[in-house]
Amino acid sequence: MIQRIQSIYYLLAVATACLSLFLPIVSYVGEQGEIAGQLYGYGLQLADGSFLKTPWGIVIFAINCIVWQVVCFFSYKNRVRQIKLSSMVILLLLILVATIAVYAWAYTDNAQGKLVLGYGVPFPLLSVIFTWLARKNVKKDEDLEVVRHANNL
Fold first, then answer.
1. Were both Cys, which of 9, 27, 70, 106 would link to 134 (CB 3.0–4.6 Å)?
2. Range with top average pLDDT, 39-43, 130-134, 143-147
């Protein structure tokens, strides 16, 4: 299971999806350059340390992506299902990226500052790339398996 390269890709995809929940996605900078607030995957934290709102859309999509990536990881005996689930996870991750953009734009008024991208932004996109690489390798394994069965006949 772990000796396959796609297993490594799935683990990296899960790790990057988890990091996207806990790293600041967007910072809101005030007029004097001070940070007025930061948007994390689990909430909008203002400069005084209080949490204003929870972006439930980000939380729901991120947790769904993580759960389905773990299911993909443990579906190594059924490669066809793994390919289909990987395609679904890629779609969910792209929806997550769109949801992050919507929440970042919507919370601009609440944090009262200029929008600056944080270092948590690339992690959902990295998760898309790792999931795509895993899907590609699973498909390659499936194609080789079909050829191997055809040679036995």
1. 9
2. 130-134
What is the rounded distance in angstroms from the CA atom of residue 126 to the CA atom of residue 93? Answer: 10
Amino acid at 71: V
Provide the strand spans (E) within 1-153: 26-29, 35-40, 43-46, 114-117
Distance CA 62, CA 56 (A): 10
Match 């934290």 to its residue by tokens.
45
What lies within 8 Å, CB to CB, of 45 at 6+ separation is 37, 38, 39, 51, 52
Structure token pair of residue 68 = 């389905």
pTM: 0.87
CA pair distance 88, 135, nearest whole angstrom: 11
- Chain position carrying tokens 């929806």: 95
Position 51 pLDDT exceeds 70: yes
CB 72, CB 83: distance < 8 Å: no
Which regions of 7-139 does DSSP assign to beta strands (E)? 26-29, 35-40, 43-46, 114-117
